[in-house]
């Protein structure tokens, strides 16, 4: 009985230690993170439009540096900024959600201006989405 109790307590301590480490894992600083690949917004969107499964295996959860022209820039009620880059489609684009954890040099973006952003690809819903983006 004592051995079982000791084993259970040991597993509980190990589980708590692992949980504490995961909870306190620091975020990667996107300003200093190296991009896994660089491309235009049109190339990224076309890759997803042609074969989403292949594009997911290539881009999903990777840091991508994407260049393009601002189609639209929005700020929600919480102050989160999303920039949609032009990709050749009237309805869709590449949405880049700026990183709230990184200091952003700018918060205002104009339609038609060229930008290069770096962020983590989370796949395609109707638009291709990059999160935790920073200006390059």
Notes on the protein architecture:
The protein contains three helices and six strands; from the N terminus they run H-E-H-H-E-E-E-E-E. With 136 residues, it is of the alpha/beta class. It has a single domain, classed as OB fold (Dihydrolipoamide Acetyltransferase, E2P) (Beta Barrel), CATH 2.40.50. Strands 2-3-4-6-5 form a five-stranded mixed beta barrel. Strand 3 (81-85) and strand 4 (94-98) form a beta hairpin. The longest helix has 22 residues, at 2-23. The termini are far apart.
Helix and strand topology:
Blueprint: H1 2-23, E1 37-40, H2 41-50, H3 52-59, E2 63-75, E3 81-85, E4 94-98, E5 114-124, E6 128-135
Parallel strand pairs: 1-2, 4-6
Antiparallel strand pairs: 2-3, 2-5, 3-4, 5-6
Helix pairs in contact: 2-3
């Amino acid at each position: 009985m004592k051995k079982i109790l000791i084993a259970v307590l040991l597993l509980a301590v190990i589980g708590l230690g692992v949980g504490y480490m995961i909870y306190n894992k620091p975020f990667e600083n996107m300003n200093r993170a190296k991009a896994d690949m660089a491309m235009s917004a049109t190339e990224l969107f076309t890759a997803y439009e042609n074969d989403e499964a292949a594009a997911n295996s290539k881009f999903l959860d990777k840091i991508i540096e994407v260049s393009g022209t601002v189609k639209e820039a929005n700020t929600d009620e919480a102050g989160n900024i999303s920039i949609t880059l032009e990709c050749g489609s009237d309805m869709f684009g590449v949405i880049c959600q700026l990183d709230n954890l990184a200091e952003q040099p700018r918060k205002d973006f104009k339609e038609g201006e060229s930008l290069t952003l770096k962020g983590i690809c989370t796949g395609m819903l109707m638009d291709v989405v990059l999160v935790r983006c920073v200006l390059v």
